[in-house]
Amino acid sequence: MRLVSSRTRKQRLAIGAVAVLGLGGLSVIQALPASAAAGCSVTYTVTNSWNTGFQGNIVIRNVGDAWTSWNLTFSFANGQRVTQGWSGRFTQSGTGVTVANESWNGAVPNGGTVNPGFTGSHTGTNNNPTAFSVNGVACTGTTNPTTGGPTGNPTTRPRRRPPPLPRRRRRRTRRPRRPERASTTRTRVVGAT
């Protein structure tokens, strides 16, 4: 029978405890659902207009987590119709308009923009739409956290600023002294014979 020293036994217990705690911590992390902040802002402008037609330009800015695809929805108020679009796939049902990304412009990072445009027609006034949504989230220019993620108040209040770094004292260097000049005294002898 082989005896295991107490030191080896302690090391094995410590390694086993770390492994159990590590796996337990991983399972807790995996149990939490991922939370993403969704947010967007939209700028809609009419860049050109004529009798019963107009050209619209839309700038969609992602102010939240990155998108792998996007789907913009908005509604016209006065019976406007989209006749042709670019940089997005436009569909319209009644007053509601949906613009889906193209295969080449679906990925939009935080701070990135996409710029679909279109031509349209109208029979009355051509008021701009005022409410836009991307991927089901209202575009307000701020982020809206999605469901999931940790809830409750943090146990410690986050610091607003990091503490200041200690100041380094500047060492004064002494200037070398100027060498003293030898004084020369001139003596004038008067009346010497």
Automatic annotation (TrEMBL):
Domain CBM2 per the UniProt entry, residue ranges: 33-142
Bias-annotated ranges (Polar residues): 113-133
The GO biological-process annotations, alphabetized, read as:
carbohydrate metabolic process
Q: What does the record give under GO molecular function?
A: hydrolase activity, hydrolyzing O-glycosyl compounds; polysaccharide binding
- Renumbered to this chain, the Low complexity biased-composition regions fall at 140-156, 182-193
Q: Provide an example Pfam family for this protein.
A: CBM_2
**InterPro entries the record matches:** CBD2, CBM2/CBM3_carb-bd_dom_sf, CBM2_carb-bd_dom_sf
The annotated region (Disordered) lies at 113-193
Q: Where is the composition biased (Basic residues)?
A: 157-178
Q: What is the name of the protein in this document?
A: CBM2 domain-containing protein
Species of origin reads Phytohabitans flavus
Q: What is the lineage of its organism?
A: Bacteria, Bacillati, Actinomycetota, Actinomycetes, Micromonosporales
